[in-house]
């Protein structure tokens, strides 16, 4: 008999100005680091990547988070209930003069666990509904710097692949592969 225990949940956010009163996170990808210490979760609608320490699998601890491109931002019509000012919502992220639209979607982690690569296109039909500006401008690939000692995530401002600049673009990049393998492809080696 197989059994499991729920140890983590990500609640919806109460919002104004959106399709529903409650916004789900919409988890689109998860991965575990090679050393089994960290769990990474992409929350496409929230525009967040979360890093949990899972050393104690019965009690994951949130140790890192970064935000970009979600539905709720300080220049969006959607507001989280309880956020009284524009400054209370996450800022719109700009990297190399490119405004990032569309939340984090697919994740790839380097073998050493120090670089987390992320694209922001889910499926073109969903992209058109939730992030039409991303469809018009193209998606991106970003690199997140990972603190593997204490936990923590930060967007690397020096790395940007702008798929809006492709010759026959703009294009929507869904998934990527890390040359030489990554923490999710070791089974293929």
Automatic annotation (TrEMBL):
This protein's UniProt keywords: Selenium
An annotated Gene Ontology molecular function: selenium binding
Lipoprotein keyword on record: no
Pfam families, sorted: SBP56
InterPro entries in alphabetical order: Se-bd (IPR008826)
Family that this chain belongs to: Belongs to the selenium-binding protein family.
Cited PANTHER family: METHANETHIOL OXIDASE
Name this polypeptide is given: Methanethiol oxidase
Organism encoding this protein: Oppiella nova
């Amino acid at each position: 008999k197989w059994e499991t225990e729920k140890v983590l949940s990500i609640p919806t956010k109460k919002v104004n100005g959106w399709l529903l009163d409650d916004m789900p996170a919409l988890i689109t990808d998860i991965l575990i680091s090679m050393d089994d210490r960290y769990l990474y979760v992409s929350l496409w609608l929230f525009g967040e990547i979360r890093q949990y320490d899972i050393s104690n699998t019965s009690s994951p601890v949130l140790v890192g988070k970064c935000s970009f491109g979600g539905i709720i931002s300080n220049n969006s019509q959607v507001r989280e209930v309880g956020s009284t000012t524009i400054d209370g919502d996450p800022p719109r992220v700009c990297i190399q003069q490119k405004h990032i639209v569309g939340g984090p979607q697919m994740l790839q982690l380097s073998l050493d666990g120090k670089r987390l690569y992320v694209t922001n296109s889910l499926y073109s039909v969903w992209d058109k509904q939730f992030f039409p500006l991303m469809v018009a401008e193209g998606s991106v690939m970003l690199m997140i710097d990972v603190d593997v000692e204490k936990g923590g995530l930060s967007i690397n401002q020096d790395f940007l692949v702008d798929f809006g600049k492709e010759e026959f673009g703009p294009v929507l990049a869904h998934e990527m592969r890390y040359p030489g393998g990554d923490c999710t492809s070791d089974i293929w080696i």
